[in-house]
Structures are given as C-alpha cells and as structure tokens.
Design brief:
The protein is mostly helical. It is about 65% helix and about 0% strand. It is built from 10 helices and no strands. Helix 7 packs across helix 9 and helix 8 packs across helix 9. It starts with 19 loop residues before the first helix and ends with a helix.
Length: about 200
C-alpha cells in the first residue's frame, strides 16, 4: 500500500541534510517516517525530472509519486556503494517512459531512413544549441511541449537526460535508427519554431 503522504505533499521542497544511508535502511524496514524523510530529500531533484515529461504540476506530481513508490519497492536492489540520486533518477525516467506507453494509444513506431547520412546533425546544429542555451527554462519547456509525443520523448531522453541512442532504443523497443530519426525530426521542428519566435530572433540579431 502506498505511503499516505504521497499525493499530500504538494508544495514541499527541500535539500535537507540527512543521514541518507540510515534513512534508506529504515525505508527497507517500511518505516513511514523514514519514507517521508526520503521523499522530502528527493523531492526537488525528482520533480525536476518529472517536469520534463509532464506539462502541468499536477501531472508531474502524480508521476513523481508513482516513481517514488517504485524507488521504495526497489530499495533492496539498490547497491549502497553507488550514489543514490542517479539511481533514483533512472527509476523516475523509466516510470515516465512506462507512463508514456500506458497513456499513448499507439506505441512508438519504427521509422526508416534510406541512408545513415540523413540522420547526421544539420549545419545549424551549433546555432540550435546556442539559441537553447540563451532561453529560460520556461521558454524551453513551452516549445518542447509543442512537439509531437514521440519526438518529445526521444528529444528529452537524448538531450536532457543524456541517454545514448542504443539506450533509448532498448527502453522503447525500437531501433537506434528510429530514435535518431525522431531526434532529427524533433530538432528540425524546434529550429523551425525558433525561427518564427521574434524574441529569439532579437537575441541573435
């Protein structure tokens, strides 16, 4: 049964210092107080991840709570010698991918290109990264959420989470060629959209 605090802590943010090893050990014993402390400790970092996959705060919180449950139930598999937050963030990303699959009527499809060269970055790749680096987090989020679902998922995993194409392909059950095609399509759409944005144009004029 999920901890009762899930879905209740809506506004809490914390980077509080805790004895993480001791808290994790207590969480493995289903200690509710320890689970709450771990939730507080992880909240900011995991919420940042969830906001990449959900447009509004309520959906992001629901995703965070679902992912945190998986973190709790998989603590016995966590190796105490490794850093905890990267491990927890990986579970959260996989929860987001599962959520995408569950809520999307049509699964991510394999797409094909005639040549490998078609999948290489465009000549405006450097300009694209310069523009994105000059934008605010809210501007980036707004424009990314205008992408089609498949392109947005692959773009987020590759550009924001740092996943390699073979890792994305394994997670989504498609070919690397397909993920490269979705990424190229996403970047082309973003470049086209950025070209229409007068605010962005003014920054580089």
């Amino acid at each position: 049964m999920p901890p009762r605090f899930l879905g209740v802590v809506l506004q809490f943010k914390s980077s509080m210092s805790i004895n993480l090893e001791a808290v994790i050990q207590q969480c493995r014993k289903n200690n509710r107080r320890a689970q709450f402390e771990l939730y507080q400790h992880c909240f900011d970092r995991l919420m940042l991840t969830c906001n990449r996959y959900k447009k509004n705060r309520e959906d992001a919180l629901a995703l965070l709570n679902a992912g945190f449950l998986k973190i709790l139930t998989n603590l016995d598999k966590y190796d105490d010698r490794q850093s905890f937050m990267p491990w927890a963030s990986t579970i959260m990303v996989r929860t987001a991918i599962d959520d995408f699959r569950k809520n999307k009527a049509q699964k991510l499809q394999m797409v094909y290109c005639e040549t490998e060269e078609e999948l290489e970055g465009s000549a405006s790749e450097d300009f694209f990264h310069d523009v994105v680096s000059a934008m605010s987090a809210e501007e980036i989020k707004k424009i990314i959420f205008e992408l089609p679902d498949n392109e947005r998922l692959v773009f987020t995993l590759h550009e924001m989470e740092g996943y390699k194409h073979h890792e994305i392909a394994a997670e989504l059950g498609v070919t690397e060629r397909s993920t490269k095609r979705y990424l190229k399509s996403a970047k082309k759409m973003l470049q086209d959209e950025l070209g229409k944005n007068q605010h962005i144009q003014s920054m580089f004029s």
